[in-house]
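Quick one, tokens below. Sequence please?
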């Protein structure tokens, strides 16, 4: 099965330069002959430290992630990658002992500013987990669950919304005749596509993906990866993955974490082919991790 190739940009060094460099290249590619103009970062972490009680999980992380792109977070188990995702959409808020220093911005907004509603934030910043987690309701109702919860559309529009997003993720032909069936009768790959459709239905600005294909077979993995590439022109995605080949295939930028520190961040081709830090060289070559 042939598949599109993710765009690669030239070497970019420096954590804060990632979004500016990649965004400038995206702007230049979209308008031939135009002067490259850096795009506003979609997600910005500044001096971010996170911990639980006496344990520090992330320390002094600063990075900017460009809009309309797939941004891979890589590193060994326990290095803080998933904590980054859970901090962006405030899923750690109710965890005992959680603390945070520094700032997290989605667009221009500090996610922990006074008056920010975590539920409203999670509409802007969706999340897809490692294992598919469909709700115990029909396939159709799964897709529109968030639309209903946030009252984004009248009841008469829900069927059309469900069809649109099932088509978007390539699942419509498989489920069109059984929209009222249980999602648990779908394959694992189909369930993950259903969860993607549910996340997309509320119109997020950013989509967080925590190892979204780690429990899937190769064919289902390819389906999900192809969808991420298709979506990347209109949506910012931040994806944790332990699959280095996957990061190469689908991501625009790659950020490498090690022992709770951000070691290196830049265009994916640069991080894998011309890394500047010894730890990155060792990790992408398979000597550590």
């Amino acid at each position: 099965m042939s598949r599109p190739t993710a765009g690669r940009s030239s070497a970019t060094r420096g954590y804060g330069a990632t979004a500016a460099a990649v965004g400038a290249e995206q702007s230049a590619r979209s308008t031939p002959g135009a002067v490259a103009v850096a795009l506003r970062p979609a997600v910005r972490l500044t001096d971010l430290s996170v911990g639980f009680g006496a344990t520090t999980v992330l320390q002094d992380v600063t990075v900017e992630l460009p809009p309309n792109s797939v941004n891979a977070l890589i590193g060994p188990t326990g290095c803080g990658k998933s904590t980054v995702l859970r901090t962006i959409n405030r899923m750690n808020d109710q965890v005992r002992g959680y603390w945070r220093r520094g700032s997290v911005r989605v667009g221009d907004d500090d996610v922990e500013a006074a008056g920010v509603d975590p539920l409203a934030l999670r509409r802007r910043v969706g999340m897809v987990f490692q294992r598919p987690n469909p709700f115990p309701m029909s396939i159709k109702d799964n897709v529109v669950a968030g639309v209903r919860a946030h009252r984004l559309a009248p009841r008469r529009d829900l069927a059309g919304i469900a069809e649109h997003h099932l088509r978007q993720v390539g699942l419509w032909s498989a489920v069109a005749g059984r929209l009222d069936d249980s999602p648990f009768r779908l394959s694992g790959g189909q369930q993950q596509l259903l969860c993607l459709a549910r996340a997309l239905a509320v119109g997020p600005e950013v989509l967080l993906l925590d190892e979204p294909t780690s429990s899937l077979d190769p064919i289902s993995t390819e389906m999900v990866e192809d969808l991420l590439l298709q979506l990347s022109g209109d949506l910012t995605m931040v994806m944790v993955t332990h699959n280095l080949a996957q990061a190469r295939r689908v991501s625009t930028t790659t950020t490498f974490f090690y022992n709770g520190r951000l070691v290196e961040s830049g265009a994916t081709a640069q991080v894998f082919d011309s890394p500047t830090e010894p730890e990155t060289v060792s990790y992408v070559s398979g000597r550590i991790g």
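The CA atoms of residues 195 and 220 lie 13 Å apart. Residues 17-30 form the longest helix (14 residues).
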